[in-house]
Design a protein that fits this description.
428 residues, mainly alpha, 18 helices, binds acetyl coenzyme *A
Length: 428
Amino acid sequence: MSEFAKLSLPNGKEINLNIKKATIGQDVIDISPLFKETGMFTFDPGFLSTASCESKITYIDGDKGILNHGGYSIEDLAKKAEYLEVAYLLLNRDLPNFEQYQKFCQNIKNNMLVHEQISILFRGFPRKAHPMAIMVGAVASLSAFYHESMDVASPQGRMDVVYKIIAKMPTLAAMAYKYSIGEPIIYPQDNLGFAENFLHMLFAKPTSSHKVSSTLARAMEMIFVLHADHEQNASTSTVRLAGSSGANPFACIGAGISSLWGPAHGGANEEVIEMLQEINSFERIPEFIKRAKDKNDPFRLMGFGHRVYKNYDPRASVLKKACDEVLGELGIKDPLLDIAIELEKIALNDDYFVSRKLFPNVDFYSGIIYKALGIPTNLFTVIFAIARSAGWISQWKEMIEDPAFKIGRPRQLYTGENKRDFVEIKNR
Ligand code: ACO
């Protein structure tokens, strides 16, 4: 039986709004007929209470610290699944069987090379450019290479886009890195796993053979899994909104990368390391905690807080444990990890952070692992972008395949000037 929410307006009019049921988690009040029925919009800056779409891909319970893809917990996936298995899961809402997985991996491998012309594009960027700036341009530029041949109206055409995006992201990221350090580009290899291939393209040189350590490859695979999707966050919503106009999907992923770059989103991992390096000693932690609490100081504890998680971010728990394991296996002792643990301990016992439910998020520990793996700081967010490409393109595909999908077009509350007469410049 349908349930309704009753809305009473100041003019005495009452309307019933249908309540749509979630499988788990929050039901929603369907306000789509509101404007037609009342002539009013709703107002929700930052989308604190607004579901922008219906999705079957990822479920988050921020209060309980739960993150599931297609019903599978992130803890299980991080421990047991490869990144491409999770990508398949996001795209198909089911894990692949052996044959399906072999075929999926082969399709990814077949698409890892990028058009040689793209390496010329790289030469136009300054060597010192941030790799995220290069990624925004390079990934969006794929639209120039695959616009005419692309057929997003057919299921096969959409899968072709999916394979190209997931496969070419690590290649472009490694090219951006090699370009920035002035080394020759290393091509992807068919005989390597997804994460292994990326690390090989980053660290191999044409002059010698390079074997990626299995510890590093496993850690990178897990990092990719942990970042693969996170439902309707800023970058994913950006991809959906850009794609809702029917824009070229490669250009839409470029828009998603731009959104991810910000320090309030994926850019935080880089800033966490910079913050820990600036803190540098246990003695200085109270000074930074004080600054984070000071409303006149724009400083925030980077890697703390989350729009959705008001309990521990489950990805941060997995990463914290992985951090200990990876550093242990590699025999690395990183003083930044000690500072991070102490900072977390102090913040979690401070009423300011406790009362606002500010816990470490995924970015708090990822930077320390990246550092241990020898990844330069300015590549941290790029790695996030590689991983998130599976989520972005799955969400884009889900939207395109929804028969009810419409161009995204939010409304506004106008509070500017009313109509007035134009005044000639000499009279102003
Ligand atoms: N340090 C200090 N205070 C904080 C922090 C922080 N990191 N995060 C939030 N607060 C405070 C705010 O000042 C605010 O206090 P008030 O109620 O007294 O005004 C309260 O907590 C709520 O903060 P909002 O900004 O309203 O929370 P919102 O949900 O909009 O923001 C966000 C979430 C952007 C992640 C925020 O916590 C933040 O800036 N964190 C630091 C950056 C970061 O780590 N980003 C990565 C996010 S995870 C990801 O994208 C992968």
